[in-house]
Amino acid sequence: MNGGFCIDCGFHVDSFEGLTACPNCGSKGSPCGDEQQVNISINMQELRVLVIWAENWAHTFNGAGTVYAIAERIKKQLPAKAKDTPLSLGGEVAQLKRIYGNVFTNIKGAE
Question: E strands, 1-111, where?
Answer without folding.
Answer: 4-5, 12-13, 32-33
